[in-house]
Every structure is written in C-alpha cells, then in structure tokens.
Amino acid sequence: MVQQVVVIGAGVYGAAVASELARRGAGVTVVDSGAPAGGTSGATFSWTNSNGKEPRPYHDLSVAAMEAHRKLAAAAGGDWYHETGNLEWAADEAELEQLRRKVDSVTGYGYGARWLTRGEALRLEPDIDPDGLPADGIAYFPDEGWIEPARMIGYLLAASGAERVWNDAVTQIDVSGDRVRAVRLASGRELPADAVVNCAGPEAADIAALAGLALPMRNTRGVLIYTSPVAVAVGRVIHAPHVHLRPDGAGRLLLHTHEVDGAAHVSDSGEMSVDPAAVDEVVTAGRALYPGLHAASVESVRVGVRPIPGDGLPVLGRAARLPNFHFAVSHSGATLSVHVGALVAAEVLGEDHSAELAAFRFERF
Ligand SMILES: Cc1cc2nc3c(=O)[nH]c(=O)nc-3n(C[C@H](O)[C@H](O)[C@H](O)COP(=O)(O)OP(=O)(O)OC[C@H]3O[C@@H](n4cnc5c(N)ncnc54)[C@H](O)[C@@H]3O)c2cc1C
Questions:
Q1: Ligand 1 centroid to residue 306 C-alpha, Å
Q2: What is the CATH number of the domain that holds 271?
Q3: pLDDT tens digits, 44-71
Q4: Is 154 in a helix, a strand, or coil?
Q5: Which domain holds residue 128?
Q6: Which residues contact 284 (CB under 8 A, 6 or more apart)?
Q7: Is the CB of 332 under 6 A from ligand 1?
C-alpha cells in the first residue's frame, strides 16, 4: 500500500501532484534543489490553451486541463487563473492559411474559436493601434487565458500540508528489484518512499537516469520580457506577428516571441543572458501594436527552459519497468498541471487511468 510519496520538483507539476496526493490521504514530501516556482514555472508565458495541440488525445487532455483550472479556481477562490480569451492573427497569406487550418481543426473538435473583424477586435482591445490589425481574419479563442504559476503553486503546496524540503537536490534513487525504495539528498538525508513522482521539469532526464531509466528530452530556451506597470489596456492573451503579450498583474505586461529564442545564452558557469538587441526588437514590436507601451520600461528579462520530451508530447504516469516510479513531465505544463496532477496522483494510489494516460506513457520511447 502506498503511504509515503516523494515528489521531486516544486513547479506547477510537483505542486499539483502533491496537493492531489495529500487530498487523497497519502503522506507527501516535496523536494526541490532550489525554491518552489524557481524553475520553468517561474519563467513561462503560462497561456492556458489547446490551440493546435495534436494529436487528438493531446488536445483532449489540454481541454480537460482548462476545465480543471476553471474548477480549481472556482473552488479555491483562485484569482491566479485568468480566462481572458486569446486573439491571434497572421503576418501574411501563408500564415493566414495555417491559422485557418488550425481554426478549422479545433472547431471540428468542438473547441471555442471564431473570426473577428478589425472593429470587433478593437472593441475587445481598444488600445491596439488600428493600423496594427488586418481588416479581418483575426482568430478569437474565448476559453483560453493565462495563470500566475507562482501564486497557484503557493496555494497548492500550502493546501497540501506536504512536508517541504527546499535547497536540497535529489542525488540518488535507491532501487532494488523492480521497486524504488528511497530517495537520497545532497544534504545526506534519506527519504524512504513507497512511490516517487518525477516532476523535475527540464531536469527530468537526470532524475530518470538516477532510477536507471533513459528519458529523451529536447529542451529549448525562451526569452520573457517583463515591463514596468503601465496604463495600457491589454486585457487578453495576444498573439500578433513578431510579439506575443499578456497582462502580468499589477499593470505589468509580459512580452514574448519564439523569434528571439536564439538570443538567450548560457555561460560556462550557468549564467543566462539575452542579447539586448533582441529585447529591443520585441519591445519595439509591442510598442508598434500598443503605442501606450512607450511609457513602459523593461523591468526584467528572464530565460525559461521548456521541458520538452523527445517527441514533443507529455510523459505521464508510471514506468512499466519500475511501477512505483512515475512521470509528470511536459511542455505546456502551465495548462496541463492541475488535471495531470490529479490523474498521476490517482494512479500512484492505485486507481486505473489507463485510458487517459495511454498516449503519454514513457514506454513509447
Ligand atoms: C518561454 C516559455 C514559455 C512557455 N509558455 C507556456 C505557455 O504559454 N503555456 C503553457 O502551458 N506552458 C508554457 N511553457 C511551459 C511550462 O511553463 C512548463 O511546462 C512548466 O512550467 C513545467 O513545470 P514543471 O513543474 O514540470 O517544471 P519546473 O517548474 O522547472 O519545476 C521543476 C523543479 O524541479 C527542481 N529540480 C530539478 N532537479 C532537481 C533535483 N535533482 N532535485 C530536486 N529538485 C530538482 C527544479 O529546481 C524545479 O523547481 C512555457 C515555458 C517556457 C520556458
């Protein structure tokens, strides 16, 4: 019987898994080599969506995850969840064709999406420069939004009542036969475990290797630009050509685009930096779209590492070869975490969720 579970990592996944395990009566220890929300979950665009998530099981998982956020936020008074909607438009005819295909595909799945004209989009986002919008062909996804991961993680960990161990890395996992027995930490502490959940985000392959499992990952870096508070009405998630943006609380905005991913560098000592010209480029695109952004300055620039399993899809649930070692690892974890946390925790405690987890098993590699 599973009584004591060690959850490795205190990002969105670790917090969601721990909270659900505790709700179901298990004893839980959450271990992080740093501080909670100090990994990718603290440097993410955190847009909640199933916008072009393929194949179908990934779309369905994401839609269920959006519903799980809605329910958790309603039950907990969780004002970290913002279901604002998302606007997206294309730079040219080729991109518009791709956007059309995506809208057709998701509406075919019954997902909320519709086309807006420039006037309709401006009624939603009146501070956009009208010249920055096409006359029509603006896709609107009303059920999407964004979360504040640090606040959600804080709530979930506190609600779990789990033992929390910070600034102490997992350095060894004791396995005998086909079972994990204990987790050892850099401090020398040993944590006996009936089950272990790998929620180590970009470092998930290292944790899997400690248990003798090879998890292929192809992590990428992304640049996130946080502005000073500014009196500009950005109410939604915006995916414009050359800049994506959303509110970030207290009047701040978060700017991002994949176009400058390559501007993030890591030194030999692990320091992350970003080419200032790339930051200027994104801010300039933001100001062209929302002229009021001229009054904002850049308050901070962060580099986040996307935890991307080898084939791009989540890796979830137990390892067949080591049935008390479990995974909760993916990109899009801001969207998926609450729902996936519940599925993975239920499986740890013996419930059968094979149908929902089948497409995401470790064994596909
Ligand atoms: C630029 C960018 C944009 C993104 N945009 C979106 C988006 O719009 N929507 C979306 O849904 N997702 C998005 N994501 C992805 C999403 O943020 C991640 O999938 C999610 O945050 C991963 O959470 P996690 O809990 O798995 O990892 P993390 O938050 O990284 O947590 C893992 C934790 O494990 C700890 N750890 C690692 N090794 C050890 C060890 N040996 N011992 C103990 N602890 C250890 C780390 O310290 C860390 O705190 C984005 C990511 C990036 C980088």
A1: 7
A2: 3.30.9.10
A3: 999 999 999 999 999 999 999 999 999 9
A4: helix
A5: 85-143+219-306
A6: none
A7: yes
